[in-house]
From TrEMBL:
Taxonomy, superkingdom: Bacteria
Gene3D superfamilies (alphabetical): Crotonobetainyl-coa:carnitine coa-transferase, domain 1, formyl-coa transferase, domain 3
The keyword Protein biosynthesis appears for this protein: no
Source organism of the structure: Streptomyces ovatisporus
Name assigned to this protein: CoA transferase
Pfam family, one: CoA_transf_3
SUPFAM superfamilies per UniProt: CoA-transferase family III (CaiB/BaiF)
GO molecular function, one term: transferase activity
InterPro entries xref list: CoA-transferase_III, CoA-Trfase_fam_III, CoA-Trfase_III_dom3_sf, CoA-Trfase_III_dom_1_sf
Record keywords, A-Z: Transferase
Region Disordered, residue ranges: 1-34, 472-502, 521-540
Length: 540
C-alpha cells in the first residue's frame, strides 16, 4: 500500500544511542520509502539499543513458545523511555510479545528459504530482528490512532465503564447491542426514551445499591458482562485466578502424528506465503493475531456469523491484509461451505469461549480428524479451565477481575480510590502477538519433523498473570502513571513516524504500521481492509 511515513527500526548492537536516531535508515523496512526512521523527542528519543537477553520477559516468552534460546541473540530493541506509562510493566510486556512474534517469523522465513534448520550453526542464518518501542507503543494503541476519512474510531460505549457499587466497584462491557440489552435487563433498567446520559444515571443509581460480587453473578446469569474489581491477592484466591496461576503463558499440544500439510507454490519473501488461515475471531486479540499472519503473507479469510457483525471501526483496524466473509454455521449450507474451506486450510484460529464452537465441528480433535496436519490456534478470555472457562470476557473485564485495575488505581471520590486502566488494551494486543507467534512456531516445528496436528492456546487471563507476577520493570527513569481511569491520555508519544495512510473501500484510512520487524521482512500489509462480509466464501 502507499506509504506516507516510514517505520522506525533498529540496529543490532547493545549500546547507548543518545542522539535518538533509532538506528540506521535504509534498512529492510525503510528501503525505497524515501524517508528516515522516527527520531527526536517527538517520536520518543531512543535511550539505548539492547539485546533481548538484557530485557525483561523476552526469554520467558520465547521459552513458553518452545523456541531455541540461542536465537534470542538475533533480537535487538530500541528503547524509548516513558511510552505506555503505567505502574505495571506494560511496555516490557508489549516489547517482549512483539519481539518473540518477530523472531518466530524470522525463524520460519529462514527455514522456508532453506537457509536454516536447527542447532547452533543455524542461528546466524536467521534474519536479525529489530523491535522499536515507538512502533510497539503505536501498534498497541492502534484502535486509537485509526482514522476513517478523518473520523476517529469509537472504542467504548457509554455503558462500558466502571461503576461505584454499595461495597466497591464494578466494570461493565456493553459495546455490542445484545450485551447492552442483557445488562439493562439484568439491572431492571428500562431504556424508554432516555438519552445516554439519563440512562447512565439510572444505571449508576441502581448499582449504587447493589453488591459488586452479587451483581457480577446476576448479570452473568442474564448473559451480560460485568465483573467486580478485585485486588491481585483476591484474584489469586479466586478459583479462576488460582487456575490461571498454575498454567503456562502458552499451551501447546499435538493431537495426532499426521505429517505437515504441504505448502504449494514457490516460497515468496513472506514466510507464510501460500498458507491459508481460517479466522473465526472477534474484537481485538484474535484479529490482531490473524492481522499479523496476513502481514507475513498468509491468505486470511475471516468468517463472521450474519447475525453478529463486527463493529465497523474494529474491522477497519484489525482487518488489514485480510478478506471478510459471512457464513452461518448453524445451517447445512454454511457447514458445507466451511468443509470446502477446511479441505485447503493450513491454520484455523478461533476466539470464542471454550466449547462454544464444538457443536459446529470446530473442536481441535474434530478439525484434525477431517484435516490431518492442521494447526489450530485457540484464544479465550479466561482460559479453557476453571469455573469461568465458559464465561464471556474482554480485556477491560480481565484487567478488572485480575487485580490490574486495582494496581493502576487512581484518586477517587470521597477520599477513596477508583480503579485504573492500562495505557493500552495490552492484554488483547499482547495475547494477539503471542498467538501469532505460537502459530508460526507450530508451523516451524512441523517442518522440522515434529509431526502431528498442532493446537496452541492462549488466554487474556494468562497474559494478565504474567504482567502481574512474571515481569519486572526495565530499569530507567521513573515510571509515569495514567491520568484517568477511562481515558488513555498519559502517553508523551508522537506516533506519526509509525502511522501510514491509504485509500480503501472503507474510505481513506490512517492506521498504525505493524511493529513486527526483521531483516527482509514486510514493512506493511499488502492490502487494506474491504467492506466487512463482502468477500466470497472461497480461497484465492
Amino acid at each position: 500500500m502507499e506509504r506516507s511515513s516510514p517505520a522506525a527500526t533498529g540496529g543490532a548492537a547493545c549500546q547507548a544511542d543518545p542522539g535518538g536516531t533509532g538506528g540506521p535508515a535504509g534498512d529492510a523496512r525503510t528501503a525505497g520509502t524515501g524517508g528516515a526512521t522516527g527520531t527526536g523527542a517527538g517520536a520518543g528519543a531512543v535511550q539505548a539499543v539492547c539485546s533481548a537477553s538484557e530485557l525483561p520477559g523476552m526469554e520467558h516468552a520465547w521459552t513458553a513458545l518452545g523456541g531455541d534460546t540461542g536465537l534470542l541473540e538475533r533480537v535487538s530493541c530500541h528503547l524509548r523511555p516513558q511510552l505506555l506509562p503505567a505502574r505495571l510493566p506494560v511496555l516490557e510486556l508489549a516489547r517482549a510479545t512483539v519481539a518473540v512474534c518477530s523472531l518466530s517469523a524470522a525463524e520460519l522465513s529462514a527455514l522456508r528459504a532453506g537457509t536454516a534448520s536447527s542447532g547452533a550453526a543455524a542461528v546466524s542464518r536467521v534474519p536479525s530482528v529489530q523491535v522499536d518501542d515507538g512502533a510497539v507503543a503505536t501498534a498497541f494503541t492502534s484502535e486509537r490512532h485509526l482514522r476513517t476519512d478523518g473520523r476517529s474510531s469509537v472504542n467504548f460505549a457509554p455503558l462500558s465503564r466502571f461503576w461505584r457499587t454499595a461495597d466497591g466497584w464494578l466494570r461493565t462491557h456493553a459495546n455490542y447491542p445484545h450485551h447492552r440489552a442483557r445488562l439493562l435487563s439484568a439491572l431492571g433498567v428500562h431504556e424508554g426514551h432516555r438519552d445516554e446520559n439519563a440512562l447512565a444515571e439510572a444505571v449508576a443509581a441502581e448499582l449504587a445499591q447493589r453488591s459488586a460480587a452479587e451483581t457480577e453473578e446476576h448479570v452473568h446469569a442474564a448473559g451480560g458482562l460485568a465483573v467486580a474489581a478485585r485486588s491481585a491477592k483476591e484474584w489469586a484466591e479466586h478459583p479462576q485466578g488460582a487456575e490461571a496461576a498454575r498454567r503456562p503463558l502458552v499451551s501447546t499440544a499435538r493431537v495426532d502424528q499426521a505429517p505437515p500439510l504441504p505448502l504449494p507454490g514457490a516460497f515468496g519473501h513472506r514466510p507464510l506465503h501460500s498458507v491459508r488461515v481460517l479466522d473465526l475471531t472477534r474484537v481485538i486479540a484474535g484479529p490482531v493475531a490473524t492481522r499479523t499472519l496476513a502481514l507475513l503473507g498468509a491468505d486470511v479469510l475471516r468468517i463472521d456469523a450474519p447475525q453478529l457483525p463486527e463493529h465497523p471501526d474494529t474491522h477497519a483496524d484489525t482487518g488489514m491484509g485480510k478478506r471478510s466473509a459471512l457464513l452461518d454455521l448453524s445451517t447445512r449450507a454454511g457447514q458445507a461451505d466451511f468443509e470446502e474451506l477446511l479441505k485447503k486450510a493450513h491454520v484455523v484460529v478461533t476466539g470464542y469461549r471454550p466449547g462454544v464452537l464444538d457443536r459446529f465441528g470446530l473442536a481441535p480433535e474434530s478439525l484434525a480428524d477431517r484435516r490431518p496436519g492442521i494447526v489450530v490456534g485457540q484464544l479465550s478470555a479466561w482460559g479453557a479451565y476453571g469455573p469461568w472457562r465458559r464465561r464471556r470476557g474482554f480485556d477491560s473485564l480481565v484487567q478488572t477481575a485480575s487485580g490490574i485495575a486495582f494496581e493502576e488505581r487512581l484518586p477517587g471520590p470521597d477520599d477513596g480510590t477508583a480503579p485504573g486502566v492500562l495505557p493500552a488494551q495490552a492484554l488483547d494486543h499482547g495475547t494477539g502477538y503471542l498467538l501469532a507467534a505460537a502459530v508460526l512456531r507450530s508451523l516451524t516445528e512441523q517442518r522440522r519433523g515434529r509431526c502431528g496436528s498442532g493446537v496452541v492456546r492462549v488466554a487474556l487471563a494468562q497474559t494478565a498473570d504474567w504482567l502481574l507476577n512474571g515481569l519486572s520493570p526495565q530499569q530507567g527513569p521513573p515510571r509515569l502513571a495514567p491520568k484517568s481511569a477511562d481515558a488513555f491520555d498519559g502517553t508523551p508519544h508522537d506516533p506519526a513516524p509509525w502511522l501510514n495512510e491509504t485509500r480503501s473501500p472503507l474510505g481513506r484510512l490512517r492506521y498504525a504500521l505493524p511493529p513486527v520487524a526483521y531483516d527482509g521482512g514486510p514493512a506493511d500489509w499488502s492490502r487494506p481492509p474491504g467492506a466487512p462480509g463482502t468477500d466470497p466464501v472461497a480461497w484465492w
